[in-house]
Amino acid sequence: MESLFLGHAYIDLTMQTNCMPTGDEKAVAQDYAVSFGGNAVTAGFTCAKLGRRVHLLTSVAQDWLGRMFLDMAQNYGIEVHKRSVRRSSLSFILPNNGQRAILRARDDEYLEDFPILTLSDLKLLHLDGHMSDAAIHYAQKAHKQNTLVSLDGGALRPGLIDLLLCVHVAIVAERLCEQMSLSHNEMLMFLKSKGVKIGGVTTGSKGMLWYDESGEIQHLPSLNVPNEKIIDTSGAGDVFHGAYCASYLDRPNDRWRSHFIFARAAAAHKIQHLGNEAGLPSQEDILFTRSAFLEGEQG
């Protein structure tokens, strides 16, 4: 097992539309995409698309959406370790001028304990804070054997603070700063206090504030993708996480700035496509994106 991604799975329905009907109205969307979804799940698919071997521990229901999800994973060579739920989770996503509205229906009432896996030869564990009992269990095991533990801290979820004690790389969202009433710099200091070696706060189109191996705080700008090329920003952060995981697995001795520069281009590629699957970058896509766009705020 080279890498393990652990989190909650969704099926995403993304619809491109200029209007949203209310009341007793109807409208016709311009386009739509059906794809896998979920933070660590999308990161895992990204890592697999970039050529790495991925195992995924996630929620799966015995329904037609669950079977569709397993088919998607099989297409990418991903080995899924299932934790059963009654119903698959859904996300309805409406991109809107560089932002997105999301309506979710989630089943996280697990019907069984999480599966026990052997982590021999594991090089990377990536978590999104969902399935907290499994996340803490595997983070502790991975940390003990000096396996890199990466966290997508999108929101303040149960067990997240305890989880940070086992995390080497934590990239969190502005939402977590808001929930904890911390500024971006205060969040970085908080991550340092928990022993996180590489920490960052993503700020959407403005890029990321982060600290490197020496603890130096710096700003990584996003790539300046013009407004007319931006189609769907949902999932861009998840692609960012998956891409830096892939970069680390490819070049474990590189500095983290190089991994994040690689991942920044992956996210810039994603936002030009509708839905997660269409936006997954190849190595060639990332090379092209790095050469096509300069640093600077998007839009």
How would you summarize what this structure contains?
This protein is an alpha/beta fold and 299 residues long.
Describe the structure in your own words.
The protein has a single domain (about 5-290), classed as UDP-N-acetylmuramoyl-L-alanine:D-glutamate ligase (3-Layer(aba) Sandwich). The chain is built from ten helices and 13 strands. It has helices at about 40-50, 65-75, 130-145, 160-165, 175-180, 185-195, 235-250, 255-270, 275-280, 285-290, and strands at about 5, 10-15, 30-35, 55-60, 80-85, 90-95, 100-105, 125, 150-155, 170-175, 200, 210, 215-220. The strands form two sheets. The protein has a nine-stranded mixed β-sheet with strand order 5-4-1-8-9-10-11-12-13, with helices on both faces. The protein has a four-stranded mixed β-sheet with strand order 3-2-6-7. Helix 1 (about 40-50) crosses helix 7 (about 235-250), helix 7 packs antiparallel against helix 8 (about 255-270) and helix 8 crosses helix 10. It starts with a strand and ends in a 7-residue tail after the last helix. The model has no long low-confidence stretch (mean pLDDT about 95).
